[in-house]
Records
---
Amino acid sequence: MLSYLNVAFALLALLTGFSVLILVVVAEGLGAYGIANERRAGYRLCGAGAVVALAVSVFDFLWWHHGISVIGVLFAVVLVALLFHPQSREYQKIWFR
């Protein structure tokens, strides 16, 4: 659910003119759909998209201070932490196809 929310915020930022990598938005959206349908490829795609989105958010926040707020960076950190938490990874190993 947090991945979908993160994609929605990224799309809003894209529509308002802030620089967002469209490939990251697509990767997170497809990854979230894959996670919802219990697919390993979706989990990996969402994880990769979340890490890149976190890197872009932190870089944007630290150097330019525009387009990304502290809450946006925190959402990215929480998403990466939840995706790579040991219990999430174990659940993915057992139940995902």
---
Amino acid sequence: MVLAPPDRYVVDMIRAFNLTLAQLPSKPFRQVFWWSALLSLATAVILWTAVVWLIANTAFFGSLPYVGDWVDFAIQWAGGLAAFLLTIVLLPAFLGIFASLFLETICRAVERRYYPELAPARDVPIWESVWTGVRFAIIIVFFNILFLPAFIFLPGVAYWILNGILLGREYYELVAFRRMAPRDAAALRRRRRPTLFMGGIVIAVVASIPVLNLLLPLFGTAFMLHIFQGLPGRPQQG
């Protein structure tokens, strides 16, 4: 593991952050966001409609005399509200999964604007993009549930540390595997772990801010690509 002076980490983070913010309003980023948002909203509506239909067409206590219909009505009302809240909670996860379909567009837009000297990266198959998004969502949800007690006793800090590790690694692999073999990318990650962890902390802070976290897939991808391009030992071409 290679350590750099603290001021080097700060400079790298500020540079990557500023470059990412400058490009967020650009056309490719807007298109990816609106397509992802539209697909996520459609998925949330379909999920909510299906759950409400299932609850409305299931008789839970209808056979009970006098109170059965009232109890079923209460269950249907509460179930519909719970389904609505669930879709709101899952909306960022849906957004992340659908945005993964377009992350190659984000990477190419960043490279075209800031790193035009690079040779084209390998084409990423759609199935690989989908699997990356699904795996990403599963890992984040699983570990955040597992460490939920730590978030209660150390709010903010524990969340940022855990997700700094997870998000730093996941977004690094997302951009690094486009240009490096997995074994070489893993070796580079081990050598530059502090830098990637600090980058993950920045992404985790963005992920913890409501509304802004909807931009997480776009921000995280572009931000980590800038971090990757600043790593000593990365491929200079291709």
---
Amino acid sequence: MLDLRRREVLSLLGGAAATLPCVARAAPAERMRRIGIIPPATQDDPETQARIAVFRQGLEQLGWKEGRNIRFDYRWPAGNDELIKTHAAELVASAPDLILTGITPAVQALKRETSTIPILFANVADPVGSGLVPSLAKPGGNVTGFTAVEYAIIGKWLELLKEIAPEVERVALIGNPDLVFTKSFQRSLEAVAASFAVKPVAAEVRDAADIERAIAAFAREPNGGLLAVPAFTASMHRAVIFRMAVRHRLPAVYPFRFFAVDGGLASYGPDQVDQYRRVAGYADRILRGAKPADLPVQAPTKFDLVINLKTAKAIGLDVPPTLLARADEVIE
């Protein structure tokens, strides 16, 4: 059995860390620099605010103080693909020193607008398959950053799901079919499903209404469980997924901590806030003259297992004590 407590270092190039130093470097020249930011969710989303806060704190530790030598310019797309394109064009036209985003479509839109302004991404899945960079080790061009999860993590999610609810025989993967990595996650699920004695199902969704319909249809047959692709669609509409999962008593495992904190049953995946802390190191290096082409794309190094006992009770599940003992966080 896989040990979910292990902190597997998935970093592709271990020596290329973006860890922040304990003390700030010498203050940069006082010329005002500008960072454009396209956040991963809405302005009132607590998880998004936490990520932005640690990014800004990290930069301040490195000598970048807002109002003195750094300024942030935000664009909030709220899940609207057309707004993402519009915001990308606006930010590029304003010629910032750097643009940060955590949304794959935003990186793609920005790449279409500029090949010179540095673009940093945080927590995106499959940057090579999505066409963001040609190589993780040598990204080239003006784009680099930090990935979310690898496809092999599907096996850990299935193991966790079966440990919580051994009777699960069918597993639906909730994801947007328009994203290339949704198909890759589905293929990974299909490749390992037999070893966990489950039948994989693709729950293709693009919005909240799709999610309601897909989960309701899936729940018509017994012994089902849910997984979610680590992407914007599930994150943006997670409250709908939680509500439908409880209504139909479907156990579910999610890719990030904030899912379980906000009401999901369980999560296992990288610490996304920590990723934004790390990306501040890359932003600092670029602002000081480093080229994105020379900064390898990095994978997560910190993973969390979180169990929400309140949701487990609502679904009618008893979480095994051995699993609770291994959890990094238990929400009661």
